[in-house]
């Protein structure tokens, strides 16, 4: 008999055929978890449930212990037989980052699947508390959630009245992409008192040209350091001194893992981003004073 079929048949009998809702508090706490996104892994470790993760995906590399977790796939798909062999009692998926066909198969096989749907900074504490309920680690999760809420509130208060500084967020160099006002990254810029020059773009992650950047004349260019298997080309912005950011060499590099993942660590990335943007803000304020 085919080995994969045997595993599948066993799982059908062993697991309850259910697609879990986010608030399924009546179920027993998860002990063997497959986490299908790096941010889910990070948040589980943050609340003390990291040792329960038996499988995960590519790029789930924080904390260091996460690198020892078996890999069962990535954004392009899940190795179903590998996942089944791990005998998870819970799969936590990211609907925006996993293949829906794979998730549908898991549910059809009777595997309990729940979905992490964080899309807003203020939803991170909710996500942490939700994981706390799923793992019966409510107190741990509450402490982490409250620290995040307090840290975010302090940053928001600090920059609430800051003078605006216009920013181009270079999400990706080739093809060149940025973010509009509906995105997570836009929210981080808002916390720092920055103005996103492509906030009004019609798509969330528009593909743009050098000419578009020339037209918007940002004072600062933010360049995230993103992990990639292929080296990405560098854009020599010095060739376009018509752009204030290029003329005044106001480039900011940020850690994409800190800012782009929906985790409690985003506060660390956000604090660094705000500090660097504030330095650029001060630079332009001094420049204006000198010119006047």
UniProtKB/TrEMBL annotation:
Keywords: Signal. PROSITE patterns: FE_B12_PBP. InterPro entries: ABC_Transporter_SBP, ABC_transptr_periplasmic_BD, Vit_B12_bind_prot. Pfam families: Peripla_BP_2. The keyword Nucleotide-binding does not apply. Residues 1-22 form the signal peptide. Residues 32-281 form the Fe/B12 periplasmic-binding domain. This is Cobalamin-binding protein. It comes from Pseudoalteromonas viridis.
């Amino acid at each position: 008999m085919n080995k994969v079929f045997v595993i599948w048949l066993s799982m059908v009998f062993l697991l309850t055929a259910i697609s879990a809702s986010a608030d399924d508090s009546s179920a027993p706490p998860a002990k063997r978890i497959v986490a299908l996104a790096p941010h889910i892994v990070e948040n589980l470790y943050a609340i003390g449930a990291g040792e329960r993760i038996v499988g995960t995906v590519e790029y789930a590399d924080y904390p260091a212990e996460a690198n020892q977790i078996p890999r069962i796939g990535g954004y392009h798909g899940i190795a179903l037989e590998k996942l089944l062999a791990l005998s998870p009692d819970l799969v936590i998926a990211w609907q925006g980052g996993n293949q829906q066909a794979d998730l549908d198969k898991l549910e059809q096989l009777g595997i309990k699947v729940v979905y992490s749907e964080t899309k807003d900074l203020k939803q991170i504490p909710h996500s942490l508390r939700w994981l706390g309920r799923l793992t019966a680690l409510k107190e741990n999760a509450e402490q982490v959630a409250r620290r995040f809420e307090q840290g975010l509130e302090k940053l928001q208060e600090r920059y609430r009245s800051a003078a605006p500084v216009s920013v181009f967020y270079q999400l990706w160099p080739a093809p060149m992409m940025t973010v509009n006002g509906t995105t997570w990254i836009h929210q981080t810029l808002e916390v720092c008192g920055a103005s996103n020059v492509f906030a009004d773009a019609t798509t969330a992650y528009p593909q743009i040209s050098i000419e578009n950047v020339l037209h918007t004349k940002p004072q600062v260019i933010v360049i995230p350091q993103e992990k990639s298997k292929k080296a990405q080309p560098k854009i020599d912005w010095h060739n376009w001194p018509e752009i204030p950011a290029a003329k005044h060499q106001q480039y900011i590099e940020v850690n994409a893992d800190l800012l782009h993942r929906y985790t409690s660590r985003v506060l660390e990335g956000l604090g660094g981003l705000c500090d660097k943007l504030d330095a650029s803000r001060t630079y332009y304020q001094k420049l204006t004073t000198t010119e006047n």
